């Protein structure tokens, strides 16, 4: 398992998020996980 720190531009604002995943996860999958985490955070 690895932790990846990302800064995502979402709705014109920058958000920092962490994704914990395995070494063989593709960059696209990691980006989708990060975006879904940010979306979930702001829906609540």
TrEMBL record:
InterPro entries: BA3454-like (IPR049728). This is BA3454 family stress response protein. It comes from Oceanobacillus profundus.
